[in-house]
Amino acid sequence: MSKAKTAEKTTAAAETALENGAAALKTGLEKSLKSYEAFVGYGKDSAEAAMKSATTASKSIESINSEIYSYSKQSVEDTVAATKAVMGSKSVHEVFEYQTDFAKSAFEAYVAELSKISELATAATKDSFAPFKGRVQAWLDTVQVARV
Asked: pTM, whole model, 2 decimals?
């Protein structure tokens, strides 16, 4: 074979290898860019979910604190009223009736309030975690996009 033909074949092989390498590099860069965009999008969505969760939790805590304050205020008012009734009673029997009625109503109010706060806390927890629902699946989807 002549040197010219050998040189042409070598040149053609080098050009083909260069073109294939450039195409593979371009494909790899496009795939990397697509994966990067998917991860950035996932991070942004997760940050938004965290902000929504924090806002919901804050509002829920405010609601629970308001409920506790209202209950405490009402409890003090009821105690003052019961004390006045006991102090104004005319017999020992009347004192026992007032105290018994007060103790019963105070306990019932306490149990009702505890139940209400428990329900508020449960709802707050559910609402606070709601923005994170689906984040695991979104992560799996993001990783799958990166693998493709």
From this structure: 0.67
